[in-house]
Write a structure and sequence with these properties.
Blueprint: E1 19-22, H1 33-41, E2 46-50, H2 65-70, E3 75-78, H3 92-100, E4 104-107, H4 117-126, E5 130-132, E6 151-157, H5 164-177, E7 182-185, H6 189-195, H7 209-216, E8 225-228, H8 240-250, E9 254-259, E10 265-266, E11 269-273, H9 277-288, E12 296-302, H10 309-323, E13 327-328, H11 334-345
Parallel strand pairs: 1-2, 1-3, 3-4, 4-5, 6-8, 6-9, 7-8, 9-12, 12-13
Antiparallel strand pairs: 10-11
Helix pairs in contact: 1-6, 3-4, 7-8
């Protein structure tokens, strides 16, 4: 039996679908995670891609806003996440072109679309909608730290954009296929666009962040799983705060560490090396025990998208032997991922 869905500022049915994915002018794939996430987990809602100087290719058809509208698109989604969630002024002309073609604009950025005067003026003139999904629901409480019924798993990371969302979605899908009661709980803009509900944790006032995580993963039947999408990293020089709030508020019974084995440093922070997976496990255990003394690590998820199959298999096998835990790439699947799912299901209610 599925538990109640937490409140969300935007519901999926309210969004103008299908989408044209806007890539801006980014050149680093790690910043296009919203576009890739929608392509991989909501492909039936994606018509094509478009940018204004981007070198990123999602594999979807490249279409102008007008071409996309003719093919059925009704919204353009900003498919990238810039540092700090700002919408650069150089994008505004392109977004106005999308409005003029008949598309509403959907954004998961921190900058509110309506705060950009030329964009707001164009939307009013054309009768189009500006929709922000990175808006937390009203009435979020302060965290209590009290235990709740149900089982929870949190994906944690060595960095941003290392597969926390993909891992959570893949685990939720696998548990559902085995007949388990499970909900994917979205904590970021891309997950909310995929699931149609959730809480954008990095947009919550700090005092209420742990309470928001509690609201995101409410009490449920003892056998029910909430698979919670993690954010940032406890080791991130800028975003560790939201990671800690999720850890304390979700009170996970289990966690999976997500890591990209060929990434040398924190994305966008070349002076900060990625922590070792062991460091992440130890710190997550130490801090997580504050609200759930029974917390445990059940495995590791590798993003091996930049490795060939043989190299990926070798690295995952070596890491599994080193840690004594299942290590898998949820996208590649296979026996390694089955072992990870089995480890999750072995956690007692």
């Amino acid at each position: 039996m599925s538990s109640a869905h937490p409140a969300a500022a935007v519901e999926l049915d309210d969004l103008p679908q299908p989408y044209l994915l806007f890539l801006g002018d980014v050149t680093e794939a790690g910043y296009a995670k919203t576009a890739f996430g929608l392509r991989d987990w909501a492909s039936d809602r994606c018509i094509g891609q478009w940018g204004c100087g981007s070198t990123i290719d999602t594999g979807l058809p490249t279409l102008t806003p007008l071409e996309a509208w003719v093919r059925g698109a009704r919204g353009i989604v900003i498919g990238v996440a810039t540092p700090g969630g700002a919408i650069p002024p150089r994008w505004v002309e392109a977004l106005i072109e999308a409005l003029e073609a008949g598309l509403d604009v959907v954004s998961g950025m921190h900058t509110r679309l309506s705060s950009i005067a030329p964009l707001a003026d164009a939307a009013r003139r054309l009768g189009r909608r500006l929709i922000d999904v990175r808006v937390p629901p009203d009435g979020l409480p302060v965290g209590t730290g009290r235990r709740r019924t149900g089982r929870r798993l949190l994906t944690v990371g060595t960095d941003c954009a290392v597969g926390k969302k993909y891992t959570a979605l893949a685990l939720a899908k696998a548990l559902a296929e085995r007949g388990d009661a499970v909900d994917f709980r979205a904590s970021g803009q891309t997950g909310i666009l995929i699931a149609g509900r959730g809480v954008p944790m990095d947009a919550v006032v700090a005092d209420f962040a742990a309470g928001a995580a509690e609201r995101l993963s409410p009490a449920a039947e003892p056998s029910h799983w909430d698979i919670v999408e993690g954010q940032g990293s406890l080791f991130h020089p800028a975003y560790a705060g939201v990671s800690l709030a999720l850890l304390h508020g979700t009170q996970p019974d289990a966690f999976v560490v997500c890591h990209q084995p060929d990434r040398p440093h924190v994305l966008g922070y070349p002076d900060f090396a990625l922590p070792d997976v062991v460091e992440v496990i130890e710190l997550t255990m130490r801090l997580g025990q504050r609200t759930n003394p029974r917390i445990r690590c059940v495995g590791v998820a590798f993003d091996t998208s930049r490795l060939d199959a043989d190299d990926a298999t070798a690295r995952m096998h070596a890491e599994g032997a080193r840690l004594g835990l299942p290590v898998a790439d949820p996208v590649r699947g296979g026996d390694a991922f089955t072992a990870l799912v089995d480890a999750v299901r072995a956690v007692s209610p």
